[in-house]
Structures are given as structure tokens and as C-alpha cells.
């Protein structure tokens, strides 16, 4: 039987274009020490460490858990490294949760990072080939397919981009603080990959995020409120084959179905209080609201358009500003997972959703083919009506 | 010699139910996916399982060997992912994928998992690639490569009075001789120690034959929880324990003539809680066998690396998993009842994993 697991400590660095003030070691250590301070622990209290990041080629360091072992207090301990493309941050959180749920460990430190300024992210995201189209170039045709299929008006994307940047103004760690952001500014920004404008795209960030996961006993001893990990799920499918639905992705539907079933959730829109969803390009908010069964098919954009996904709406999405405001790729999924935890712990500061008890953390990756999700709650055994 | 034990598995114990590996090739002139697919088809054939009966898949591979970011993504083509599958990936040797799968099956909600390790070293030059594992600020720019670091470690061993160059040659002679009966070996042969010692140094005090070959290859296994394991095979190999530990990456902070992380991992899994019939150690360079034997208390053990070890075939990212498979195979075939497998990662045995396996129904 899986043992209970909780997020007991959270730490983040400031996200920005270039963290030239720190080495890779300094960057991960900054997040790790903040997560440890949040639960009043030190490296000596940690039983195992899990590291996650996107391709090694982003920084040019091969299997970096080796050279980061000292900085993460891992010497003499188990440390392992997860890599599942863009979903890696959430996959790493789940990998850490598995260690606690196995009953073998009391406290596990999970650290994810990317220092994109050390390399060329668009080159790496194009599979290491020059002249690549980058991530936006891959996703834009699928976004256009979604718009055509659902009949969504063009302004939905601008609206998501504006909302997430307004939320980011409340988050001191967010990379982008665009004080004068507006729908007009998004619309007027240069077209990068039709239909995606410059301001509908995520930034390229340096940064690290960390959580301390604990057993039930460790959570009870912890000074601050835990966020209980009540369910997690992962699904993967092929990136391309004839007839593949790249918009309403089967792996994403299956992943959400499994997740809600494990959590005991029968009506995600009503029973989940808020969500941190991996939205690197504006349109992925309505696409994943549908693709993860929160909104009816072809109607995700109506949720966005109605204001339901704003702070203060009935299903706030990306309260922290999301990937559109901070994107250290390998950490972005873990940031979603830990921001969900912040909400149910009541530690989200100015972007706190009042009374949030159940939150979704989500990431996807590759050719929209890798999915990793978890549900956290303020209660160990929440009941849903 | 095959020894008995009073171990009685329960449904919470997890067993290897089938193993597969490709030969180690100097150049596999096809894709990494094809290497993986051969193993997967072999495993499905030997267990009679359908792809969709296997509930979790986890693979270990390395983008840098292929020279392409996200190289691991296409590896799922060799495993199958339609309908969508529950799957994960570690950028580590497949032995660490097994570690994660083992923990995952402990949760009890799923019964079976694929564990895969694969790598093609042939497209690149390992001497140029592997310095990227060292400290990116102080060491990598110097191009300090594996053979050079291994030479430093071998020298530390000699200076500590723990070994001589003749001892290294004896490891090589025995490994290559053992590999003559291993159909998956890439390098084998009958050499005298004096013949080997007559060769010139390559990375002093090491000679070229003290290094592993450059190999392409894959390995995979299916593991299952108690009852399901017994349905799938009448010769399960139980995973009695896996532990792994890391050391500092600053070579100057370590005593390179010993391996405290291997020693600690070995103690945690109870290597000597029962008789050790066979041991397969990830000896990347001949001198490492002496360090690892000491760390695991196997100094005079007569049955270490009967496959020939990595010195006879080194498909990086599968090499560690192959050690576990070689022990499991001997337990399946009844040559051994209980054995120890070891995997390592990083320069000069920086990180080490120890696994204890045991047979019995």
C-alpha cells in the first residue's frame, strides 16, 4: 500500500533571463536551502535527492547530478536524475513522491532547474539541429487546428497572455513583471508563429525550484502546513503517427482520467479549487482545460472568455503567472506542482485563492505527448460531493 | 556452488521474471530503437505477455551519446506507446531505472514493469563527450577525460600499496578469458599476464586493454510483484535490496583508492546477510575491480564477473543493468541461488548502486 506523502517545504529562486551572479551549483542550492528553511530542516535531515531538468545540452553539462551532488548535500546519499522533456518537473515531483510512498524514505528533496542563458534553448528544443522551428513552431499548427475546430475567437489567446502576466505582478519570483500589459499590447506584439504573437509566448529563464517531500510522520513534525499529495498520474504516447489527434491528445485525456479516479474526483471543474497548468503558449490554457476534462470538448475557450480562469473566477488557472511568466524549462513543471501546493497550504501570498483546499499541478512535454499531473490537498483524505 | 536460504517471498516482494540483452556491438548500424525493440519482443515472447499487460515502463539512456537533445523521446518507438502508456525516463544507467521501478511497484497498485537501458556510443568519441560530466567550471574546460581520471585512480591504488600493474593485467586476462563463453561479449581472448604487461601504457599506469571497448547495445527486463511474478515464471529472481550512494565530484576530496559509496550501499542491502554465489561488478577499468572487491568484502571471491564484465562489452547506459541481468540469468539457470550486482556512474566510480538478488519460489 502506498504510504501518504506531503509537500512540507517549498523553495524557489527569482526567475530571470540571466542569473550570472550564480553558478549552476549556486542556483540549485539557493532553491534547495529555501525549501529546507521552509520546513526548518537541513541537508542532514534528507534521505534521498531527486534532480530533474530538460536536456543536458541546454547547459552543456552531461548527467549534472554528478557535479551537483556536493551542492545538494547528496554526498553519501542516493541521488537520481529524471528527464521526461518538458513534463520533467512534474515527473520529478512524482518520482520523489514514489520514494516516500514506497515507505523506504522519510524526507526526500526534489530539485529542478534550468539555466537557459548558458546555452541556446531554441537550438536544443529543435533536437540539436540548426535552422529548427523551436517549440512555438511545432505547436502553432496544432493551435490553429484547435481554433478552427472549436470556433474560438482570436482574442482568447491574447486574454490568457494578459491574465497570466497580470497574475505574475503579484508573484515576486516571476520572471516577467510587465506592468503595462494589456490585450492591445499582446495583439500588437510581433507575430512569431501564426497565430502566436511574441507576448503569447513564454520567456527563456534561469531558475531553480525545490520541494521537500515527507512521510505522514515527517509532515506531522513539520512546522508549517503540509500539502498532501492525494493522487498523481503520468501518460506517454508516440509523438507522431497518421491520424494522431495532436489537439485533444489521448495521453492527456487518459492521464487526467486516471488522476481524478485515484483522487476520487468526479467533477473536476467543481471539485478542484484552482490549477497550475503548463501553458507555454497562450492557447494551451483552453486546450488543456478540454484535454484534461475540466471543460467540455470545444468549450475550453468559453471558460477563459468568461473570466472563470482569472484570480477571483470559479476555476483560477496559473495564479502565479504560469509558464508564460517564468520558464526555466526543466523546473517549470515542478513550479506548477509547488504552486498548487502553495495554494492548499495557504502560502501563495498575493495570488492566494481564498479557501483553496484542492489544487491541480500539471506539466506536458515533447510533441504534446508526455503528461505528468498531481492533485494536492490541505487534507490527507479529502471527500468530494 | 548453489546455496540455500530461508527467504520466503510474499506478495510485497518484487522479482525479475524475464531478462534480455543484445550483444555489445562496436558499431550497431541501425537505430537505438531497434536495439530496444529486440529486447522488448524477446521479453514479451518469453513471458507470453502482451505489450499492454505491462503496466509501467521506465528507461535509462543518455542524450549526449546520441548527440541530440531529446534523443530518448524516439526510444519509446522501440517499446510501444499506443494506446498511451504509463512511462518514465532517467538520464542514467538502466540500473537506476530498475531502482525507480522497484520503488514504484512497492506501492502495490500495479504489478508489472518494463525496465530498459540502452546506448549507442559509436556515433561519438567518448573521450570528447565524457569530460562534460565533470565540473563545468573547473574541470570540463580542461578536457579531463575518463581514461585520464582512471589513470589517476589506478595510480592512487598503486601508491596506496593496494595493487600493482600485474594485478590489473590479471583482471583483464581473467575477464577476457571468461568472455570467451559469453555470446554477448564484444572482446574476448586467452592472454597471458606477461603478454598483456608487455604492451605500452595508454593512460599510465593503464594500458589500452585496461579500458572497456566502445560499444552499442541495450538490455531490458520485466519485473513483477509477488503473485504476478509466480504466474509469469517458475523461476523468479527476487530483488532483496537495491541501494545507491554518491561521492563528491571533487577528485581531490576523495580517497581514490577506495569506494566508500559502494561500501555503504553494500552494507545497506546486506551483501553478506547470506552467501554470495556470484557477483557482477561494473568494472569500467581493470583497476576498479580491486577497489570494488574491497568495498564489497569480495576480495578473494572466486566468481566475480563470470560474463567478462564491462571490459568485454560496455554499452553505456545499459552496462549496469547488464550486470544485474547477468546475475539474474545465473539464478534463473540454477547456477547460483544468491548474487550481487553493481553499477556505477560518473568518473572514478563517483556513484555506485548495489543490488542483491535471490532465487526461490
UniProtKB/TrEMBL annotation, chain A:
<dbReference type="InterPro" id="IPR016039">
    <property type="entry name" value="Thiolase-like"/>
</dbReference>
<dbReference type="InterPro" id="IPR055140">
    <property type="entry name" value="Thiolase_C_2"/>
</dbReference>
<feature type="domain" description="Thiolase C-terminal">
    <location>
        <begin position="246"/>
        <end position="376"/>
    </location>
</feature>
<dbReference type="GO" id="GO:0016747">
    <property type="term" value="F:acyltransferase activity, transferring groups other than amino-acyl groups"/>
</dbReference>
<dbReference type="InterPro" id="IPR002155">
    <property type="entry name" value="Thiolase"/>
</dbReference>
<protein>
    <submittedName>
        <fullName>Unannotated protein</fullName>
    </submittedName>
</protein>
<dbReference type="Pfam" id="PF22691">
    <property type="entry name" value="Thiolase_C_1"/>
</dbReference>
Automatic annotation (TrEMBL), chain B:
<dbReference type="InterPro" id="IPR016039">
    <property type="entry name" value="Thiolase-like"/>
</dbReference>
<dbReference type="GO" id="GO:0016746">
    <property type="term" value="F:acyltransferase activity"/>
</dbReference>
<protein>
    <submittedName>
        <fullName>Unannotated protein</fullName>
    </submittedName>
</protein>
